[in-house]
Inverse folding.
């Protein structure tokens, strides 16, 4: 097994940002992943798993270790049960589901990235989450050098999180079994297209981006007194800092009541604010887009600015959804 050297990671990033990997290897099956991890361990190399290059900000200096890209792209259906490799793009999975007349993931229409990445971060939208379809996940425990099969309940799925995300790369998703439902292919395709169009209309897909930067804010976790005005609006009275003024905020179900991070960022007056080649998108302010040759440092400076201003303005702490390496 031979690793490539000094491979530019920007070519694998949706952001088109990132320096070189000292070592790089694309694995075609689970055995190659295990072997590559074993070699990295023996050499004392750090490693990280590169999926679809979404939800990932890669440093300008690159990665001083092994970047392992699993190309596990198989898709198999047995009735309503689908077995798929972690490297399958969500767009390809949905095309497969439409052809087979399988319903349950229509909410993911237009979702970038791979199935493995979606499971790791428990991706969700439009009141749906990937955890609702996952029955079983096969992974590789890089610490103990063994394969692990987890049932849904063992994956510790939470809001934009899972046991795989908690372990921060020590447990690598290889494949998954998903349980879907039979449906009309035409209706499934219509709903998928509707979600794709929604994202195209409201998200800045015309510029390089890595999706939502921040998690939406759970109403239950806001340290304030909450007054329900109606089903879609609340009044927030900061408790921890009485000097802060009360404010109204929209609420959506995601899949529990949340205040959209985009709303807080917009109300903090940060739409269109830029740093170097990066900009807080005027179209959807929870996206930071690469407008003109942005660096990772440009993006990081905007992340810190947004967190600081939202905290100052609303006494709300935003939590990043993306991973930084």
């Amino acid at each position: 097994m031979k690793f490539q050297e000094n491979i530019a990671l920007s070519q694998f990033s949706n952001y088109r940002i990132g320096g070189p990997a000292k070592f790089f290897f694309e694995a075609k099956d689970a055995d190659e992943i295990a072997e590559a991890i074993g070699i990295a361990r023996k050499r004392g190399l750090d490693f990280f798993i590169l999926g679809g290059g979404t939800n990932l900000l890669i440093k300008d200096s690159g990665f001083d270790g092994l970047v392992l890209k699993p190309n596990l792209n198989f898709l198999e259906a047995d009735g309503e049960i689908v077995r798929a490799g972690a490297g399958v793009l969500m767009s390809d999975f949905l095309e497969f589901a439409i052809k087979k007349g399988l319903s349950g993931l229509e909410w993911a229409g237009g979702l970038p990235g791979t199935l493995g990445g979606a499971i790791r971060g428990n991706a969700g939208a439009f009141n749906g989450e990937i955890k609702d379809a996952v029955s079983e996940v096969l992974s590789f425990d890089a610490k103990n050098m063994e394969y692990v099969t987890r049932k849904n309940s063992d994956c510790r799925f939470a809001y934009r999180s899972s046991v795989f995300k908690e372990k921060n790369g020590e447990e690598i998703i290889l494949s998954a079994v998903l349980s879907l439902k039979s449906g009309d292919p035409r209706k499934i395709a219509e709903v998928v297209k509707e979600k794709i169009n929604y994202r195209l209309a409201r998200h800045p897909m015309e510029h390089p981006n890595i999706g939502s930067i921040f998690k939406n804010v759970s109403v239950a976790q806001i340290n304030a007194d909450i007054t329900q005005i109606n089903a879609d609006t609340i009044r927030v009275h900061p408790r921890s800092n009485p000097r802060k003024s009360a404010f109204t905020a929209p609420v959506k179900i995601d899949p529990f009541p949340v205040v959209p991070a985009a709303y807080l960022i917009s109300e903090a007056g940060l739409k269109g604010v830029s740093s170097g080649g990066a900009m807080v998108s005027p179209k959807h302010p929870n996206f930071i887009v690469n407008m003109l040759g942005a660096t990772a440092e440009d993006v990081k400076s905007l992340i810190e600015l947004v967190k600081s201003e939202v905290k100052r303005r609303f006494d709300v702490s935003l939590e990043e959804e993306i991973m930084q390496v």
Notes: Residues 86 and 116 are 4 Å apart (CA to CA). The first helix runs from residue 30 to 43.
